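Appendix B, record 7
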Amino acid sequence: MQTNLLTRGNPKVLKGESQGYLTFILHLAPASLSGYNTCAAATDGCKMACLNTAGRGGIPNARPVTVQARNGAMTVANVIQAARIRKTVWFFQDRAGFMAQLVKEIRTGIRYAQKMGLIPVFRLNGTSDLRWESVGVDGARNVMELFPDVQFYDYSKLSNRKDLPSNYHLTFSLAENNDLQAWSALGAGTNVAVVFKGKLPKTFMGRLVHPGDDSDLRFLDPKNVIVGLVAKGKAKKDQTGFVRAA
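Structure tokens (predicted):
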């Protein structure tokens, strides 16, 4: 059974339409949920607050769903979780087939957005943290090179990502244990996203705090800022230090 890879129903992503952009997002199973690790720098705090269980992804079906993960069948809460595991297994076990489908859906997304009078943009790490710049496809070094006129963007906790394509924008994510890497990212001109408890402060880590919940379009943020996100869902109960005091 083939699974569609890209979605565009995320409420925060939909806010970008008022700014003329249509975001297509790829959600894989986070961390090692599928048996494959998609988040090499995952922490206890980010696992607890992960958006994988936000919205419809956290609503249980009337009956649990069985899906084939890396090490055999596993039971998950709903069809969305099952689909994310299925996509992740596909990525690791049939990379060529997965990438061919991804390229096909990107082309379809571009045409759809243009038909709607919107600019198509793509976020491939909706609930993962893979080095997409290192995943080749169709003779290109990566999918961004294959679509040089299209904007891609992501959040990442991986501090050593280099040689990024010019159309791939990254925002570094602060966790409970990577302050030094966050300082390095700021020093290199990369914005840092921080989840705060309650309302956003005016400054943090010596930088102005830019509200990040207004839309998901991180590539439009001003440079040299902290992207402030307000804790939601499970993150409100964080005790790891992942969520910072305002």
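Remarks on this record: Residues 95-115 form the longest helix (21 residues). The longest strand covers residues 21-26.
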